[in-house]
């Protein structure tokens, strides 16, 4: 009985260290899942904003600057503060309008910065008599 008591005295605090390691791992795993969800949602909203901008620009007269402003405003309004540094850019080659939305997703994981970029293209409407 005395030998068992001597063996157990060397194990003091092992359960506490194990619990700290397990709980830390679970918290980091949960934050990683939240980050993945935020990136997926941010990409979805950025794509929808780019589509909205492309739809705005495809009707003559083509206004790619207005389309870019519309897309950036859509992304800012839809996400609030968790999608930051939102900017949009629009281009037209005469037949096709492209709008690209770039943003940075809020970080749940320490020391991680995720930039997203989504592009939508649409043909310019032609009015035929």
Nutshell version of this structure?
The chain has 129 residues and is α+β, with helices and mostly antiparallel strands. Helix content is 53%, strand content 23%.
SSE layout and pairing:
Elements: H1 2-9, H2 14-57, H3 64-79, E1 83-92, E2 96-105, E3 114-123
Antiparallel strand pairs: 1-2, 2-3
Helix pairs in contact: 2-3
Description of the molecule:
The chain is α+β, with helices and mostly antiparallel strands. It has one domain. The protein has three helices and three strands. Strands 1-2-3 form a three-stranded antiparallel β-sheet, with helices on one face. Strand 2 (96-105) and strand 3 (114-123) form a beta hairpin. Helix 2 (14-57) packs antiparallel against helix 3. The longest helix has 44 residues, at 14-57. It is rod-shaped. The mean pLDDT is 88.
Q: What are the main properties of this structure?
A:
129 residues; 3 helices; rod-shaped; 23% strand; 3-stranded antiparallel sheet; alpha+beta
Q: Could you tell me the mean pLDDT?
A: 88
Task: Let me know the number of strands.
Answer: 3
Count of DSSP H/I helices: 3
Structural class: alpha+beta
User: What distance separates the N and C termini?
Assistant: 102 Å
Proportion of residues in extended strands: 15-25%
Task: List low-confidence stretches.
Answer: none
Q: Major sheet, described briefly?
A: 3 strands, antiparallel
The strands making up the biggest β-sheet line up spatially as 1-2-3
Shape: rod-shaped
Alpha-carbon Rg, integer: 26 Å
Order of helices and strands: HHHEEE
């Amino acid at each position: 009985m005395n030998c068992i008591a001597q063996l157990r005295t060397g194990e003091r605090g092992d359960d506490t260290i194990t619990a700290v390691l397990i709980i830390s791992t679970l918290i980091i795993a949960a934050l990683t899942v939240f980050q993945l969800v935020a990136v997926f949602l941010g990409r979805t909203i950025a794509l929808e904003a780019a589509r909205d901008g492309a739809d705005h620009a495809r009707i003559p007269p083509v206004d790619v600057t207005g389309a870019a402003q519309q897309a950036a405003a859509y992304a800012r309004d839809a996400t609030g503060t968790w999608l930051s540094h939102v900017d949009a850019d629009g281009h037209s080659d005469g037949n096709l309008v492209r709008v690209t939305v770039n943003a940075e997703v809020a970080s749940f994981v320490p020391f991680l910065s995720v930039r997203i970029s989504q592009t939508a293209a649409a043909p310019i409407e032609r009015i035929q008599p």
